[in-house]
Every structure is written in C-alpha cells, then in structure tokens.
Design brief:
By secondary structure, the protein is an alpha/beta fold. It has a single domain, classed as Alpha-Beta Barrel (TIM Barrel), CATH 3.20.20. It has 15 helices and 13 strands. It has a 9-stranded parallel beta sheet, with helices on both faces. Strands 1-2 form a two-stranded antiparallel sheet. A hairpin with a 2-residue loop joins strand 1 and strand 2. The longest helix is centred in the C-terminal third of the chain and has 29 residues. The N and C termini lie far apart (61 Å).
Amino acid sequence: MSLSAPTPVRVWTLCGRVAIVGLLIGGSARPQTPSYQFNDAHFHLTNYIQEGTRISDFLRIMGNTTGRVAIFGIPLQQQWSYRVDGENAPTYYLNTDAPLYYYSFIDAAIAMAYKSLPPNQQARLDPMITGFNPTDMYAADHIRRVLQTFPGAFSGIGEFTIHKEFVSAKVAGEVASLQDPALDRILDFAAEVGLVVLIHSDVDVPFAKEGSQPAYLAQTKEVFKRHPRTTIIWAHTGTGRVVRPIRNHAANLAEMFADPAFNHVSVDISWDEVAKYIVGSPEATRITADLIQRYPDRFLFGTDEVAPADQSKYTRVYEQYQPLWKLLDSETSRKVRLTNYERIFDAARGKVRSWEASHPASAKVP
C-alpha cells in the first residue's frame, strides 16, 4: 500500500507505509542547555567566492537560539572569467558557465577565525576541514597537515561533494566518484583520527525518470559498508534541489537501517530545498514525523545556511520546519535538534584531540 502526496511533494513506500527517510547512529547524549533551540550540523561561514560573515558576528547571530554549530566554508571557488562574464562578477555557481576549482586556503581561514575567539566561544563551534579535492590521493595528506598545523581546532571533514546536481559537472579537473580510491583513503584516515565526515552525494541524477533505480544508491551503500569505523553524516538524505525523493526511496534506505553494517551512518535534514519536501503538505509532514519517532537517534538538524547577514536569515530553515517540530514528542524533537549533535561531535572532539596529541607536527619541512 502506498499513498500519494500533493505535488510537488514526493512520497516513498516503506514496509507498506509512506515515509521520508533519514539515517543516524544510535546512542545517548549529554544534556544541552535548555534555552537553546537547536544545534546546527551544517553551516557555511563563507560562500562560493570565499566571502562571508565575520565569525564574531556569527556568534552574535547564534545568540541564545543556537547552542553549537559545525562550521565550515565552501571548498570550491567560483572562477570569474572575464571572457564569459565581463564585468558581471558571479557570486554563485549558477550565475555563470565558468568553472569551479578547489580552494584549499579555506581551511586556514576557518582555523584562524576560530582561533581568534575566546575559549568559551570556541566551545560552541566545531570547525570542519573541507578544502581538499576528493579525487586526489593526496587529499588525506592535506587533512593530516591541516590537523597538525592547527591542533585543537577541527572536529571533522566536510561538507565535501561527490555527486551534486549542476556542481559536479562544473568542477575543473576530474569528476569526483564514489568508486575513487582517493575517497577510500580519505575515509580511512577519518576513521583513524576520529573525524566526523559530512558528505554530500546525491542518491540520483537530476530529473531522474519516475520508477528508475537511483543511479548512485548502490555505490553509496558500498562506500559506507567499506568504512564501518568512520562516523558518516550523509547530507540532505541524498536529495537536493532537483534530485527529488522518488517512490521507494525510503524502502531503499530502510534496508540500510535494518543492516548493522550501516550503524555508523547518519543523515542531516539541512537545507530549505529538503525542508520543502518534508513540510510541503500536512501528509508529508506526518509521514516524516512518524519515521523520526521510530528512529529518533538517526537524524540531525542543520540549516545549510551560507554566510547569513542576520538571525532571521540564519534561522529561517529551523522556522520552516515548525510543522515537523510540532508533531514530534518532546524527547524525539530534542534529539534531532540538540542531543544527537552533541553525542556525535563530543565523541569526535575527544578522539581528534587524542590523535593530535600523539601525532605532533614534525619540525622537518616536508
């Protein structure tokens, strides 16, 4: 039995029910200060031209609304090609046909901004390393050097992208792939250190034919299975702006829930483009709430906001999810909004600090 939701919301069949799905690791978490409304597992301090919000201003935007934030830039720089755009400088990847390229300095910029804060403010942020090319076998070495150059700063890697609608085809050089040994090397190193991995990889191609098998689901599962010691957060449940949830998407993901080989994999429900599916109709919201109630430890909230100017812009995705929050019981809501984040990132902080202590930077210039 399956149900139909009004367009544009899609629904997915799961064990005779319909659901919008996510994945997360189980477990308990320390209590969060009650006054905070959410922790944010997915936030970009800078945009596609490496401009953004000053970190001190962002702490003020967080205020008493947001407890902690996984903070990172965007690993890709949009090229301004005068041949293509003339004086019209692009600020977003959809503004131009010019390519994107990897911008490794973003990690130093994030680390230096973080280090400029007093300890009580640093404690509210979990910086992430993202300025690496996932097709490069040396990417893991970049991550190692960043950790050793800025010890005490980073808790994870990402958001980095393998398959993403429109973006993947614009990146200069080789196309990222879930079957690339370079990705395996990155994930192996993350497991060694204890880094959280936030990966964006769409489950399907844009505008997929209804009823077709998701193009990248099998490859995604293979990657996750190969790295059982790596703490992975799959961004946006594998969907996106035009990579829409398809019928049976939940059933496909439910197979992962049932398999202990995927206990290390979680999802975030960040981005207004994801929220539009979940709150697009009362039916879709009820379906999602039912699934989260069944798997309350398997979701993290995130905004996916990029360099917001004020609190209203920063919290708009959280407010967009109000219909969902109202349907969850208080404990489940708290886990999704607050304590699942704490459990995952508290564990990462401890592991990464331990690894850094036992792997100090060498005085020898590489």
